[in-house]
Structure formats: C-alpha cells, structure tokens
Amino acid sequence: MEEFEELRPLLFSIAYRILGSVSEAEDAVQETWLRYRTSGTEPESAKAFLSAVVTRVSINVLRSARFRREEYVGQWFPEPLLTDPYEDPERAAELADSVSMAALLLLERLSPLERAVFVLRDVFGFGFPEIASAVGRSEAACRQLAVRARRHMEAGRPRFEADRRERDELADRFFDAFREGDLDGLRELLAADVQLTSDGGGKAPQLQRPILGADHVARLLAAVAAPLARIGVTVEPHELNAQPGALFRDRDGRILNAFVLDVAEGRIQAIRMVINPDKLGHLGPVADAWTLSRAFTQARRAAP
C-alpha cells in the first residue's frame, strides 16, 4: 500500500495526460490499485508494473471516450487541472508543456496508442522496453509510434512565453483590465488573431462560435465585466494546467467557469473558458450557470 501511494502522483499524471480528464484519470488510478491488490505475484518493479497497468487502463478508457467526444455539444476542452501532483526537476519543462490545454488538445489528434507512447516516452522518459510492455507492442513498433506522435505534436505545437514571471505579470494585467472593463487595456494585451472559445457541453450557456480578433474579444470582455460584478461574480487568478488562468466564482464562492490563457510573444494568443459543470466539480462546489446567466441578462438590461 505504501509503495502504491508513493507512486500515485506519477500514475495520475500519466492517466491525465492520456485522458485529458481528472475524473477519468482518478478512476484509472483506482482501477490500477484494484489490479495491483489482487495480483497474485509481487512485481520486480512496482513502478514499471503500475505504470503499465494505468497506461493500459487509460488506453481502454480513451477508446470509448473518443466516441463520446465525437458527439459532444460544441468545443471539447480537457478538464482544468489546478496542480500536477507529480514532480521531477529533471523533466520539469516536459511535464509543464505537456499538461497545457493546447498540448492536450494536440494529443487528442493522436491515436490512443500514439498518445500513450508519446506520454510515456517524451513526457516521462520511460525506456522502450517498458513502453512496449505497457502497450503490448514490440519495441520497434513503439519507436515508430513515437516518431509519428512526435511529428504530429511538433507540427502543431504552440510556442509559449519562456519567461514565467513576464507571462504571469501579463496575466495579472489582463485580469485587472477585465475587472475594470478597460477596453483599451484589454486590446493592448491581446494578439491580433486571438481566439476566445468556450466549452459548455450543452450543459451551460456557451459561445455559439469562437470570437476572433483582438478588437472583438476585447469588446466582449469589456462589456461583460460590469454586469458580472453587479451579480457578485468575482475573478480569482490561478494557475491552471501550468498556464496563467482564473476561476470565476459566484457570490457564494461556487465556481462558474475556468479561464485558461495561452501566452506567447508578449501577447495573449488564446483564451479558453471551461463552463461545463461536469468538468468543474473536482475544483469545488459548482455554481448554477443558467441562473447566473439570467441574472446577468437582467443586470445588463438594468445598466444605465
């Protein structure tokens, strides 16, 4: 039990990157524990055994999840992650990059096997013998899967701001400008081709289409700030998926949505809003988005 608990952060981090879902990753880790507990033999390496099991469980879950995601209402985003429980100073850059929303969305383009091999090899640095055992393929096949996965990821990989301090300062300025409804201040921080997108899954009010361009995005954000404040919604900056972001809360502290910012070249390149309540429950009590939406509309109409 003690050995399993020591490895739990690693197992969750593997599963989350394969699945893009906190709840599904937690279920995969629990299933791994059950298999470990009922295993009749003591593995030579608990880390290798458990990593292989959680990978196989996650691949199976992903195969069924992909069909559900094809029928998903609107844009699908991963579940926001407050903190990654696994730390490895030697792979800090790989771990942070691979957990970003943009990287997880790129991983969605890969087959389940490519995704698993990429996560094990490029993110966590597993050797090909261990990877081959985990995914049930030969080492040669795993090398080919890794090459294909790496090619797909490199082709679409965004370039984020290298200086974390500057990135976080820009995010602070953005949320300050948002709270103040400062149109010019917002526009100044946005890339010319910035995109604002939302994931409500049909279970919360969401944008019908992405909002494109600095002027359109800035105008929308500046227009909603005051009505949100009037109905008691507050903005709590918080790192999400190793990126600057924020949690929006109602007057009772319940979570309305999560904002995640992509920052590069001194500007905000993308803003992703997760509003689907099913994807927010692991962060705390969730607000009633529909009720708040009606209150927001009334507040906006009542504005002088």
Distance between the termini: 62 Å
- For this structure, what is the CATH homologous superfamily of the largest domain? PhyR, sigma-like (SL) domain
Can you list the strand order of the major beta sheet? 2-1-6-5-4-3
Unreliable residue runs: none
The amount of helix comes to 40-55%
State the shape: elongated
Rg from Cα: 21 Å
Instruction: Assign the CATH topology of the largest domain.
Output: Butyryl-CoA Dehydrogenase, subunit A, domain 3
Instruction: Decide which structural class fits the backbone.
Output: alpha+beta
Q: Strand-residue fraction?
A: 5-15%
If classified by CATH, what would the architecture of the largest domain be? Answer: Up-down Bundle
Characterize the main sheet.
6 strands, mixed
CATH top level class name of the largest domain:
Mainly Alpha
Number of domains: 2
Short key terms for the protein model shown above:
alpha+beta, 304 residues, elongated, 6 strands, 12 helices, single chain, Butyryl-CoA Dehydrogenase, subunit A, domain 3, Nuclear Transport Factor 2, Chain: A, six-stranded mixed beta sheet
